[in-house]
Amino acid sequence: MPPAKRRRVTIQDVAELAGVSKGAVSRSFNGAERLPASTVQRIHDAAEQLGWRPNAAARAIKGAPAHTIGFVLQRDPDLLGIDPFFPLFLAGVERVLSDNAYSITIRFVADEAQEARCYRDWVAEGRVDAFIVSDLRDDDPRFALLDDLGGTAVVIGEPPADVHRPAVFHTSDDCIDEVVEGWVARGHTRIGHVMGDPALQHGRRRRDVWARALERHGLPTDALAVGGFTEAGAVEATRALLTAAEPPTAIFYANDVMAAAGMRVMSELQLAAGTDVAVAGFDGIPLGTYLSPQLATIDCDYVELGALAGQILLAELAGRPTDPERCELPARFLARASYGTDVAAVR
Amino acid sequence: MPPAKRRRVTIQDVAELAGVSKGAVSRSFNGAERLPASTVQRIHDAAEQLGWRPNAAARAIKGAPAHTIGFVLQRDPDLLGIDPFFPLFLAGVERVLSDNAYSITIRFVADEAQEARCYRDWVAEGRVDAFIVSDLRDDDPRFALLDDLGGTAVVIGEPPADVHRPAVFHTSDDCIDEVVEGWVARGHTRIGHVMGDPALQHGRRRRDVWARALERHGLPTDALAVGGFTEAGAVEATRALLTAAEPPTAIFYANDVMAAAGMRVMSELQLAAGTDVAVAGFDGIPLGTYLSPQLATIDCDYVELGALAGQILLAELAGRPTDPERCELPARFLARASYGTDVAAVR
């Protein structure tokens, strides 16, 4: 048997002795949120008794808020230049933050280990007051991590039911239903989907809603190809769908960039978008109205989403929790020319 | 006469006593750049003699690099969601920074006073190791500010000749000449310009190069309207130019977003872009190839620009100054369908 190691005192030990959460211990030292004076005293007594203290350099700067929001992204930085969500969302966040003299610190990480280290370092060094958590994953480890760090955060997307963090997201299921139902009403029986990244919740969700809508009508769901949210992926996926034995007469794309790329493939295949193949996208990018035909799309106001996220963070930091905890923004379907008319007219 | 106030000791006093620059004093305390040990000793002696010391909390954290690059922007945050430069440039910067575990902190400021305060605070609090300086203005106060703070920076754009800072920028004058010369060779005699924001150097430069090219041929430069780099501005500007007594037969837009908006105005006026009115833009946005006709454009690789800026910053921080100091990236003109053919064929 190896000799017993002396265990390092952790924030958990202090929390247990003081009878509070780890978050409360953290907050009692960083001064970012108000706790009753008696609680702070009890926590600091417990910390002293156990010989625990937060990192000194960190505490020196943490006395004052950092006036900075942290945004850690586990995705390819190149997506920044492609995904319309990011700049519009950031514009909304910044519109609110800059009015309040807050900055945003962005870090791209390669994996979960780097991600966790970044969260821990930023909190330990007092570099940020709160986090924006986006691109939700299954069994997302960031919620436990935030609880552990006692960090403030806003979630972009719909978190699991047992996560009690303020969250903002668009509800678009109704719009996807509207797209499919409209095509079914116009006589389409083979309705395809070019899906996003299957590793991301919103990529899978859009596919699932599309598939359920078809199943309600007993229509096949096999005209499905993965585009991964990228132009190159959409070109491949569209070619695969349209050169198959039974090509779809309508395609719902999980984002507008893929829809635009898909419409170019159609023109290369001598097919007219909106006439030979009905097309709808997702996002509502401004340039959709400059395409020929104009791109039908499920429009989400990402600037509004970002602004709301910024307001929630500032309120949380000021000790005013969000009510309701989950804030849903409605998307809306814009049936522009690419959505097409009746199949009878089309074929 | 008011009583003489005792003047506070400043970094300038320490620099003068030690016979070094303010930047050297700053660097001797933050440890971010190596100085000869004897110089550091001389500076610290001078500081002690005068009773000067850098902010304690700042120094505590400044002992270690912040591994963060600062990006202060004096522009409307909403432009983030419109201007293709920003997300692509940021993607390039992040591609390099994330590989080196660096973050980027972004702050939008309303005016020069806020801007200067942000630079000073970030340096004093050790929040950033270096700055990205973009959107150059006339008599830009940021160069003196950086000298004062002893800060490391990379300039995006062409700084005045007396500024010795590493700089990266695209050279596009030749491309603008190529656009205008090509139209003149095709028989156009009224060539218009929808310019960007006259307050920004690159907005004025594109107009000036366009005007000089016309003047070389003795052609008029009055078909000029300000679009301000925005869609709404371009719609107004295009309408004004095309409904004038002598409308231009070709229009060079200072960016692609304005060109796309302009082409939609043309279609509303029953004019065919590329046939009735030749069109060229600037930026090389990916969606340009999805427009009908495809948008001719002066293509700049902003991802490459950002990556280069990131590399320069990391090299500077590692004590390896950039050589050459100014790094020019060539833009290239892509003469796609909207550029049109001969005027004879057009009219």
Question: How is this structure best described in words?
Answer:
Chains A, B: Keywords: DNA-binding, Transcription, Transcription regulation. Chains A, B: This is LacI family transcriptional regulator. Chains A, B: Pfam families: LacI (PF00356), Peripla_BP_3 (PF13377). Chains A, B: Residues 9-63 form the HTH lacI-type domain. The structure is a homodimer of 347-residue chains. Chain A is of the alpha/beta class and 347 residues long. Among the domains of chain A are: 11-54, 434 Repressor (Amino-terminal Domain) (Orthogonal Bundle), CATH 1.10.260; 171-300 and 333-346, Rossmann fold, CATH 3.40.50.2300. Chain A has 13 helices and twelve strands. Chain A has helices at 11-18, 22-30, 37-50, 56-62, 85-99, 112-124, 142-149, 173-185, 201-216, 231-242, 256-268, 302-317, 343-346, and strands at residues 68-73, 103-108, 130-133, 152-156, 167-171, 191-195, 224-226, 250-253, 278-283, 296-299, 326-330, 332-334. In chain A, the strands form two sheets. In chain A, strands 2-1-3-4-5-11 form a six-stranded parallel beta sheet, sandwiched between helices. A six-stranded mixed beta sheet of chain A has the order 7-6-8-9-10-12, with helices on both faces. In chain A, helix 1 (11-18) crosses helix 3 (37-50), helix 2 crosses helix 3 (37-50) and helix 5 runs parallel beside helix 12. Chain A is elongated. The termini of chain A are far apart. The interface between A and B is large, with 56 and 55 residues. Strand 2 of chain A pairs antiparallel with strand 2 of chain B, so a sheet runs across the interface.
